[in-house]
Every structure is written in structure tokens, then in C-alpha cells.
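Hi there, hope your week has been kind to you so far. Would you mind checking whether the C-alpha cells look sensible for this chain? I owe you a coffee for this, so here goes:
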Amino acid sequence: MKRTSGRSRPMTIVLGLAVASVIAAGCSSSGTSTPVGTASTGAGTQNGATQNGGGAVAGQTVPTANLPVLQTVGKGEGQLNLIAWEGYLQPQWVKPFQQQTGCQVNAKYAGSSDEMVALMKNGGGGQYDMVSSSGDADLRILYAGDAHPVNVNLIPSWKDFYPAFQSPAFNTINRVHYGVSLQWGPNVLMYNTKDFPTAPTSWDVIYNQKYKGQVTVPDNPIQIADAALYLKTHQPSLGITDPYELTQPQFTAAVTLLANQKPLIEKYWSLASQEIFDFKNGNAIVGAGWPYQVSTLKADHFTIGTTIPSEGATGWADTWMLAAKAPHPNCAYMWMQYISTPKVQAEQAVNYGETPDNKLACPLMNQMQAGSCEAYHANAPQSYFDTISLWKTPLATCDNGQSDCVPYAQWVSAWNTQVK
């Protein structure tokens, strides 16, 4: 995916559920390490997990799964090299971290998930420590052997995460964690309330000829999953059960729907600022976007509405993932500890326009910006979260072990050659 807010940047969520020498050392410099399978304090599962990760793909293994994890965090190495979305390393929270730990943060901003995957090749090449990867990149990084297991027992605020984000399928495989969840957000239906006095109840409005030339959607191959989610309800004979695991007939149907949608599209947006501009100037009256765009337009007193239609919606979730050859593992763990705290989670959520994974961040968000907790659904009821299908990497091997799912490379090709 591409993620830029326009500033300087399925799993169904169930909140009630519960360098080569570096590899050889188990990603430890001055800290102590132990094999992943070794029990750690307070947990009877691997890697210190208190919940099972459900991200395993039948017939596939993560090459780095048995690497040892730190058991104590040692002295910081003085540097921390991060691959991140622009806007994720703001001075507001990076400077205090540097002052507290002595770890100098060096940022490499990536413009897309594909770029992040490329930068993480060969375990980050012994150059990069971590990446703020999204669900459409996570499994590509994991199954390539480019991520290192993480001991979440060393991250105190992890216990304060909503359970769904403690051991999610996109960063936890067979109870082994490869990073720590960060923030997430839904892909919502946006509409001009002057044109839609009543909120649309279905995504069918973005496929309706009535709104030709007035629709805007993200410029992203993962948008195929949004079409699949729509077809899951409206063409049940296709047998779609997971919008990210599509057989060839299911995939073809989703791509055809999007190809037929093309004449309706005013713009495939790659920057949130583009969508904001198009709504403000009347170029678009309906489309798919993020809570950030909605919040920005409302702050400008624009007549914008938002909803999750009856078919549900997709969503993205980010992880600070540890590189297999991270040269500064102690500073990396210090970063995971810091970035998971309620205050820093709240700062990033308000600054970037997304939803924190730490459930204690909500009241702090409202202190920083009145109404922001509600605006970004940080306190939404269970029924809201049940409607969101979070991004995951489309793989050729389905979760059931069958090799008849369409892999992500074909999603990219179809998006660029058949849809756009």
C-alpha cells in the first residue's frame, strides 16, 4: 500500500478475545537471550505470548521462528535505524525517546509497502532495525525470513493492548511474535451530506452509474479486497469467505467489478490530501477513505459524512517489526517499550489520525484534542469492530493449505493493467 496523510505522510477484530553475528547472538548485544521455545516468566507459551497467534499458513514456516529472543534489555547501542511511514517519527515523541534512552533515531521513510518489503530483504541487510509495516506487507516479510522473533514480556504496555492486537495474525505466527502492534484504522465510506442527506447503507453507491465521475477510491491493489468484501454479500454463489484469500474465479469477479467501476472514478487517490481537496472542491461526492480525511474535513466545517456500510469494511493495521539482522536490538526493544505506552500511542493517534492499540490511550487523546477518541473510534463498541476485516498479505497458499489462492503479485498486475 501507499500511506501518506498529506501532512509532512481477514482478521475480524474481536476486542473481547482475549547482521549474521546478530542472528547468531539471537538479536542480543548486551542483553541476554533464550530460544523462542523456552518458557519465559509469567507465560506458558512461546515468546512470552499470552494469546495464540492465528497467522499460520498450512505448509509454510517462518525461517526465523526458532531464533532466540532477548530475556533482558541491555545497554542501548546509541543508534536506532527505522523504516517508517512518513509522519510516524515526529519530533514530538522521538526527541523524548532519544533523551531518555540515548538511542539516536535515524529514519528511512518508505512510500509504499512494496518499498518496505524491499528494504527489509536479507533481514534488513544488517542496516535497519525495525519497520512500521502494514498488513499487506507483514506476511511477505515474515515468510521471507526477514523478521526476528520478539519477547513481548519485555514490553510492559503490551498487556494494555486490546486483546485482538496482542497476538494478531498479521504479526504473530504459531505463538511467535515478530514485533509489536502499533495503530490501526478502517477504510470507511465517505459522502457529502448535501448529496446524501441520509447515510448510504451499502458500498453499492461507489459502483453506481448515477455517480459517474464523482467517486474516489485509494490507488492501491489491496482495493481488490474491498470489491471482494462487497461481492461476498451480493454474489454469495462465488463462495467468498475471506476477501484476502481469493480463488481465480473469485479474483476475476472482483477485478471485473473494479474495471467496470473505472468510468465512475474521478480520481484514484494516493495522498489523503488529494481526497480532501476533491471533496472540498466538489470533484467527488462519495468514496472510500480514512477517518483522518473525515476528521480534517469536519474541522474545516465541510459537509462530510462517514459510515461503515452493511457489507462491512476493510482496514489496515501497523506493526513495529524487528529485522532479522537488527544491528541495535536493545535500542529496538526500548523503542517498542516506549511506542506502546498510552501517552505516545495517544500522541501518534491524534497527530496522524488513526486508532491506538493501547486501550488506555483514549482519555489521553481527548485531553490532547477534544473528541479525538470518538472520532477515531478508539472507544467504539464491539459491534463496530466486528465489521472490520483487517488487511493481510494475499498468498498463493490459502490458510487451509490449498494452493489455489491468487498471490499478491497478481493483485498488483491486475490493478495496474486491468483496473486502472
